[in-house]
Specification:
The complex is a heterodimer of chains A (99) and B (149). Chain A is built from one helix and seven strands. Chain A has 99 residues and is mainly β. Chain A has one domain: Umud Fragment, subunit A. A seven-stranded antiparallel β-sheet of chain A has the order 1-2-7-3-4-5-6. In chain A, a hairpin with a 7-residue loop joins strand 3 and strand 4. The two termini of chain A are 21 Å apart. Chain B has a single domain, classed as Nickel-containing superoxide dismutase (Four Helix Bundle (Hemerythrin (Met), subunit A), Up-down Bundle), CATH 1.20.120.400. The termini of chain B are far apart. Chain B has six helices and one strand; from the N terminus they run H-E-H-H-H-H-H. The relative contact order of chain B is 0.14. Chains A and B meet through strand 1, strand 2 and strand 4 of A and helix 1 and strand 1 of B. Strand 1 of chain A pairs parallel with strand 1 of chain B, so a sheet runs across the interface.
């Protein structure tokens, strides 16, 4: 999955609690980024830079030179502190809604 | 909106949604000796630089340099210990003991050398730490190579 125009995801894990809890169902879309790039504060689904099949849910914490720092709301997860900055191509889509 | 939610949940029953991990401990599976090697080299370099200081001149810049070098040595010895512990506890498994019967001893000695380098300023001990880390690096490479076969 390179980009998701409209994807359904289910949350596994607690690093984004309490905003996103385990088992919650999310709609993710790349459409918002056709009209402007990801912004600080956006919650995104991204591909782990070293494990392409692993999809993570994180919040964009900083953007510099088209590189994104993504951090879990709970700072005990695996995020940019572990795997470094990510490229835009790693971002699958933006959180749009829960259902 | 409720209709959309019902529709999507019905869709989930036919075609389940993908899992997305907001996980606290996703194992990244990246194990490398490089951080421990760099930390051990930094310890050795700091010992070398401290030894080269002129303690006849205890002026402010010399004292400042001395404190910074000791701090750096302390921090990197701790970092080296942490990196080694990650390899020991997360990468190596019981089955590796068959390949390396002295695995536990190698890690025990290496992590003890980290502490010993904190306690003193001895080029010999710093070299021993580098050697111990290099030995563990060889074990790691061998274990990875075997796993890929």
């Amino acid at each position: 999955m390179r980009f998701s125009i409209f994807g359904r995801f289910i949350v596994e894990g607690d690093s984004m609690a309490p905003a996103f809890l385990k088992g919650e169902r999310l709609v993710i879309s790349f459409l918002p980024y056709f009209f402007g790039g990801p912004k600080i504060g956006d919650v995104v689904v991204l591909r782990h830079p070293q494990q392409k099949n692993l999809l993570l849910l994180k919040r964009i914490n900083d953007i510099k030179d088209n590189k994104y720092t993504v951090i879990g709301d709970n700072l005990n997860g695996t995020d940019s502190r572990t795997f470094g900055l990510i490229d835009r191509k790693n971002i699958v889509g933006k959180f749009v809604a829960k259902y | 909106m409720k209709f959309l939610s019902v529709f999507l949940r019905t869709l989930d029953k036919i075609n389940p949604p993908s899992k997305v991990y907001a996980h606290c401990d996703v194992p990244c599976g990246i194990y490398d000796i490089a951080p421990a090697k760099i930390a051990a080299s930094t310890v050795a370099k700091m010992v070398e630089k401290i030894e080269a200081l002129n303690f006849e001149e205890l002026d402010k810049p010399t004292r400042n340099s001395f404190v910074r070098m000791v701090m750096t040595k302390e921090q990197h010895a701790e970092l080296c210990k942490r990196e080694l512990l990650i390899l020991w506890t997360d990468f190596f498994k019981p089955e590796h003991l068959a390949m390396f019967p002295d695995l536990h001893d190698a890690f025990w000695q290496a992590t003890k050398l980290c502490s010993k380098n904190k306690q003193g300023i001895d080029p010999q001990v710093a070299q021993e730490l580098q050697d111990a880390v290099a030995k563990i690096g060889d074990m790691l490479m061998e274990a990875k190579a075997k796993a890929q076969k």
